[in-house]
Structure formats: structure tokens, C-alpha cells
Design a protein that fits this description.
The protein is built from 1 helix and 4 strands. It is an alpha+beta fold.
């Protein structure tokens, strides 16, 4: 499943392939945060911190 996340300060859209957008795996969160250069993301109303 693909998800698109809009960067809050740069206003750019980033698309990622994930297994389940309602429950991201830690490796998916880390990959997204690294590519977007952020410390946390909000996906489907759920807050994920990059560790």
C-alpha cells in the first residue's frame, strides 16, 4: 500500500510503500523519517517518533 506524506515546512509530498498505513512498522517509520529528514511523523492521526 502506498502512502503520501506532506512535509510540514517544505510543503513537498513524499510517497512511501508500507504494509499497513494504520500500523507502521519501526523500520518503515525510520525509513520515512530518514528520507524526509524529520524526527516524527503523523500518519492517519497516529503519531510516530523516529528512534
Amino acid at each position: 500500500m502506498k502512502i503520501t506524506i506532506k512535509h510540514q515546512t517544505e510543503y513537498t509530498n513524499h510517497t512511501f510503500e508500507v504494509v499497513d498505513s494504520s500500523n507502521l512498522k519501526p523500520v518503515e517509520v525510520w525509513t520515512i523519517c530518514t528520507e524526509m529528514n524529520v524526527q516524527a511523523i503523523l500518519v492517519n492521526g497516529k503519531y510516530y517518533e523516529c528512534k
